Amino acid sequence: MCFKTKFIIISFCFISFNSLCQNTFVPDDNFEQALIDFGFDTAPLDDNVPTSNISNITDLDIASRNITDLTGIEDFISLTNLDCSDNQITLLNISQNTNLIELYCSANQLINLDVTNLSNLVRLWCFSNQLSNLNVSQNPGLISLRCENNLLTNLDTTNNSILNVLVCEQNLITTIDVSNSVGLNRFQCGNNLLTSLDVSSNTNLSYLSCEQNQITDLNLTDNSRLAVLICFNNELTALNLSQNSSLTGLECERNKLCSLNLKNGNNNNMVLVDFDSNPDLNCVVVDDLNGNRSLWEPAFFPNYVDTINDCNLVVPVDSLENVIGTAYTLPILSSGNYFTESNGMGTALNPGDVITTSQTIYIFNKSTCNSNESSFTVIINNEDYFIPKYFTPNNDGVNDVWQVYDRLNLINNISIYNRHGKLLKFLPNSASGWDGTFNGELLSSGSYWYEIILNSREVLRGYFALKR
């Protein structure tokens, strides 16, 4: 054998031996001890691990090992699953671990985490660190992201269209866009600095917690699968859950709610409902006024109603009868104020004002959230008696009864007839008027005749209109 041939053979053997004996530098004793425990290295601790022993490892669980330095992880090139959570790691270089599918590095001391090379990443749990930035734009297959309890100020998930679980609570996030994550099922973003939140595209959402933010509006009409909503400690003034028929749990206490609509057809299955500490909330719309709400908070809420329009009715407002006279002095009110137009418009009137012209006067009362009003008519008439030309018995509290005003008590009785001369109602002088019925039946709109017998036996005849 020639010298050249011997040299080539010896060189090849040296290279092969060197490759087989290549080591990976692992300076952290706790990391190396874990690899010894797993059989990937042998004692004693010498800061080196045979590279060939770790290069084919696919799963590595080194959680809770008091590891501070994960140098050497870059040679675990076949890793698909890495759990290094609950340690004291400050730096994690996984740029060479491009096969990673699942990465769990929570409860460490990380200030940076670069996962842009991990295009196959499906689960990333990095909560309870000190991250101020997290770029997941290069992880399109991500389905579960937990990054809560960090220092994040923003989070861009627009490239994570199949994201199913997103937990980013206890950060410093001011805005978040999850409109592209249409499959999102669980979304927790509480304890941030959000002022708005749009989940209209997340129709698969079943769990939403956005508590302790500064959110002023929350539209959930498109989230029919929503089962749990936690939104306490925000700035919400209205919450309409009438379209959320799957809802079983609600915590919306400590907001500024004026309106809460829980009429969703599922009240009997709502095991947790808390809307306490909303001081301006004076009514809640529910499925059944007689339903069982013994476990709801607050325990004693007085104003459950059938419809949202009924919320105005719980605002107290005084009611006065129509008045006919030569003048009228407005009395003192307990609830409400006088106005010449509806809804507190027109000219404000005061108790003690003397009314000398015929008009309708409104009594309007407003709480922080709702309002209510009544009205009455003042008819100024200097005649001995006043016979109304029409009345409108529609139970709106205004002009519901046809009644003759008898200022000097000159009337003995009144008879009311239909146009065929049939007697419909006899009113002695003590009667309050006619409500437009006969034998309990509502009579139709039209003209009706009256015959008034005075104490002098004089007879007055005429007609008036019933308008419905």
Compact description:
The chain is mostly beta strands and 468 residues long. The protein has helices spanning 3-20, 29-37, 51-54, and strands spanning 23-25, 48-50, 59-61, 81-83, 102-104, 123-125, 144-146, 155-156, 165-167, 176-177, 186-188, 207-209, 228-230, 238-240, 249-251, 259-261, 272-274, 284-285, 304-305, 323-325, 328-329, 337-341, 345-349, 354-355, 359-366, 371-380, 385-386, 390-391, 405-406, 411-417, 423-428, 437-438, 441-442, 446-454, 459-466. The chain has an eleven-stranded parallel beta sheet with strand order 3-4-5-6-7-9-11-12-13-15-17, with no helix packed on it.
Structural description of this entry:
- Helices cover 7% and strands 27% of the residues.
- 30% of the residues are buried.
- The chain contains three helices and 35 strands.
- A hairpin with a 4-residue loop joins strand 25 and strand 26.
- The chain has 468 residues and is mainly beta.
- The chain is rod-shaped and about 130 Å long.
- The chain has an eleven-stranded parallel beta sheet, with no helix packed on it. A five-stranded mixed beta sheet has the order 20-26-25-22-23, with no helix packed on it.
